[in-house]
């Protein structure tokens, strides 16, 4: 089952459905372990979109 979840995670990551972190979690591996598996199976790393930091304090302005 572990191999099947890795294959599914690699496929979903490659298609852009999952982020690296999501795919690693789905595969039951750390991000580092998942990156190693990606290299082994020839899956290129995609650029990750910037994340939004909901805890950052910024002044809120109104028009």
Class from secondary-structure proportions: mainly alpha
Q: Which value, in Å, is the CA radius of gyration?
A: 16 Å
What is the residue-mean pLDDT, rounded to a whole number?
Answer: 87
Largest sheet: none
Taking the alpha carbons of the first and last residues, their distance comes to 55 Å
Strand tally is 0
Region (Disordered): 44-63
InterPro entries: DUF7317
Pfam family, one: DUF7317
Structural description of this entry:
Residues 44-63 are annotated as: Disordered. InterPro entries: DUF7317 (IPR055741). The protein is mostly helical. It contains three helices and no strands. The protein has helices at residues 2-14, 20-27, 31-40. α1 packs antiparallel against α2 (20-27) and α2 (20-27) crosses α3. The longest helix has 13 residues, at 2-14. The radius of gyration is 16 Å and the shape is elongated.
Provide a compact summary of the structure.
The protein has about 60 residues and is an all-alpha fold. It has helices at about 1-15, 20-25, 30-40.
Topology summary:
Elements: H1 2-14, H2 20-27, H3 31-40
Keywords:
63 residues; mainly alpha; 3 helices; 49% helix
């Amino acid at each position: 089952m572990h191999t099947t979840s890795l294959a599914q995670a690699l496929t979903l990551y490659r298609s852009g459905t999952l982020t690296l972190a999501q795919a690693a979690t789905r595969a039951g591996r750390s991000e580092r372990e998942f990156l190693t598996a990606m290299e082994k199976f020839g899956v290129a790393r995609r650029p990750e979109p910037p994340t939004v930091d909901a805890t950052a304090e910024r002044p809120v302005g109104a028009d």
